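Quick one - inputs below.
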Amino acid sequence: QVQLVESGGGVVQPGGSLRLSCVASGFSVTNYAMHWVRQAPGKGLEWVAFIRYDGTLTYHADSVKGRFTIFRDDSKNTLYLQLSSLRGDDTAMYYCAKEDYPANPFDLWGRGTLVTVSP
Amino acid sequence: QSALTQPASVSGSPGQSITISCSGTSSDIGSNNAVSWYQQHPGKAPKLIIYEVTKWPSGVSNRFSGAKSGNTASLTISGLQAEDEADYYCCSHAGIRHWVFGGGTKLTVL
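Output:
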C-alpha cells in the first residue's frame, strides 16, 4: 500500500528544536522528489521544503530558511524535517507529500503531525 | 512569495455547478502549467483533484475540471453533491523549486 506516515510532532518552547519523520511505504523515496507542507490552525496551506529524488538538491521557503532542514535516510525510506529556532508562527500541522513529477508536485499526502510552539 | 488569491467562500445547491477562481501573477500561474488543486475535508489531509491545470488523478471524478487563462486558474465542480462540501486550494509552481498555494475556498453545498 502506497502511503506516508508522519510522526515527531509535539509541544515545544520558543527557540526549541524538533525532528519530524515521514515513513514512506509502497515506493522508494530515492525515486521521487518529496516535500513538506504545513497548515497553521484554521489557515491555508504553505509549502515548506523540497528534496530532489536523488537527495542532492534541497530548497526551503524563505519563512523557514536557515531554521529548518529537509533530509532523508534512504536505508529507512524515511524523510525528515529538522526544525530549530522555533517560533509561535511555526505552530502548524506538518504534512509530507510525494511529488510525481514537477507539474504534479503533491500527488500523495500523509495525515500530518502537529507541532505546537508554546511557552 | 505572496499567496495566490481565492474567494473565501462559494456555495451552490445540489446538482448545480460552481467555479472557484485562483488569481496569481506572471511569475507563477502565468509562467507555467504546474497548477494543481486540492480538496480538504475537515480534520483530513489534502487530496489532489487536478494537476497540470486540467488533468485528473486516477479515481477522481470527472465532475471536477480545471482551466487557466493568463494569470488566473479556475476549478469547476459540476453536478454538486453533498460530499463536495470541503475546502479547496489551488497551487502553482513559482520559481526555481518553490511553490505557492491559494488562501483556500470553503465550498458550502446548500
